[in-house]
Amino acid sequence: MTGTQGVQVRAAAVAVIGGGIAGLTLALALRREGVDCTVFERSPEPAGAGAGLQLAPNATRLLHRLGLTEALRAIAVLPRALRLRGWDDDRPLSTTALGAACHRGYGAPYYTVHRAQLHRVLREAVGPGQLRPGHRLTDLTETPGGVHLTFASGARIRADVVIGADGVHSAVRSWLAGDARVFSGSSVYRGLVPADRLPWPADEPEVRVWPGPGRHLVCYPVSAGREISFTATVPARTAGEESWTAEGDPAELAAAYRGWNPTVTRLIAAADTVRRWPLHDRESLPDWVTPRVALLGDAAHPMLPFLAQGANQAIEDAVTLAVCLGRAAKADAPTALRRYQELRLPRTTLIQRGARESTRFLHLRDHPKPSGPHRPGAPADPRGLAGLRAMSWLYGHDAEAAARREGAGQTAS
Ligand SMILES: Cc1cc2nc3c(=O)[nH]c(=O)nc-3n(C[C@H](O)[C@H](O)[C@H](O)COP(=O)(O)OP(=O)(O)OC[C@H]3O[C@@H](n4cnc5c(N)ncnc54)[C@H](O)[C@@H]3O)c2cc1C
């Protein structure tokens, strides 16, 4: 290939493309399973961007087991509840208990964190030795004996197994599936507000959700309570670039929420800058793996952020894949990758669908002036315990236990 001749070909057992949430968690989980890997990240100076992320027990139990408990506690907030509120009058509509009730019920906490801080925690845990910044994958060729990778720098590498953890614009997915993204018709504005500018007391850590006519807004504390992160979803005619750093127009955002209750409008006004992310969706793939290549995280199953599960599912994927690869003999990577897909694809497809369907209660169409709770059971559930129990399909899942059970079954049969 022009420009790459003479570049030495190096070898990697497992090459992970993309050092985001999925790729870094995979590196940590593979280390625990005794599998060697190298993470190739396109950015020359990897640093997480973005705003808030909600991490539910289905992911935090896995991160804790990877040794990150103390590091996460230093950056996280433990919201005590998730509350739906009226878009016009800010009245509480329904509650899902989080905090101690969530920890008791699911054996792991519900955190809200800044994405950049989570990225730093993962990066520091992985360490510089396995991370190769400034490596943007441009091409790959799979042969029965290995996968040959070419990077924009001209570097070429041969790997036994390649994992595409390269996010919503995945080059590995383009190679594997060649499918197209579809603009969802909505954009998300994300902003950060210092906690001392808040229109409510900062010592009430909650996830607040205001469903409204054709749009909704979510906010929660991050950065150990020093900042509030909000995401405001609005209808949009045009898409534009999906990027953690694309600027948004604060005036456009304020106009989109004109007439909403003063808590919302003051929160929006308190943000100095906002970022805009046009939301794209993709159909689920029937196959994420070839004999030596697999997709992970957003590359495998990008999802609308309405169930707040994209990063959580990336973490579940990473631990599952590491367990599968850890159990496989080197020659049996194809079986490990297929087992990973069998374990993960049905669950992530369900969650992708659930995220799409969440707009039914988040974006009010028929009842633009809500007169009651929007979740079944909410009136009889003022403390939100039934609401929390209703999340057991999502928060109660232990991806690592499922993968280890599956492996034990295979060995026994
Ligand atoms: C507004 C919004 C709110 C969200 N809120 C939540 C939430 O509350 N909870 C939650 O769980 N999820 C949430 N998500 C989703 C979550 O952010 C993603 O699912 C998560 O970041 C996916 O991780 P990933 O590692 O797959 O991708 P990314 O974190 O995007 O990482 C991909 C990495 O690959 C690198 N890369 C890309 N191309 C190449 C290449 N060719 N070569 C080498 N490297 C490459 C990139 O630089 C990047 O570092 C939200 C998303 C949005 C847009």
Describe the structure.
The structure is a single chain. This protein is an alpha/beta fold and 413 residues long. It contains 13 helices and 17 strands. The strands form three sheets. Strands 4, 5, 11, 12, 13, 14, 15 and 17 form an eight-stranded mixed sheet that branches. Strands 1, 2, 7, 8, 9, 10 and 16 form a seven-stranded mixed sheet that branches. β12 and β13 (215-222) form a beta hairpin. Mean pLDDT is 88; it is low at 1-9 and 366-377. It binds flavin-adenine dinucleotide. Flavin-adenine dinucleotide (FAD) binds at residues 17-23, 40-43, 53-54, 135-137, 165-167, 169, 171, 188, 190, 231, 277, 297-299, 305, 308-312, 314.
Task: Provide a brief overview of the structure.
This protein has 13 helices and 17 strands. With 413 residues, it is an alpha/beta fold. β4 and β5 (92-97) form a beta hairpin.
What tags apply to this protein structure?
413 residues, alpha/beta, eight-stranded mixed β-sheet, seven-stranded mixed β-sheet, 26% strand, globular, disordered N terminus, binds flavin-adenine dinucleotide
Average pLDDT taken over every residue: 88
Choose one word for the global shape: globular
Ligand identities: flavin-adenine dinucleotide
* Separate helix tally: 13
Strand count:
17
Please provide the ordered H/E string of secondary-structure elements: EHEEHEEHEHEEEEHEEEEHHEEHHHEHHH
Largest sheet: 8 strands, mixed
Cα(first) to Cα(last) distance is: 46 Å
Which spans have pLDDT < 50 for at least 5 consecutive residues?
A: 1-9, 366-377
**Strand coverage percent:** 25-35%
Query: Given the helix and strand composition, which structural class is it?
Result: alpha/beta
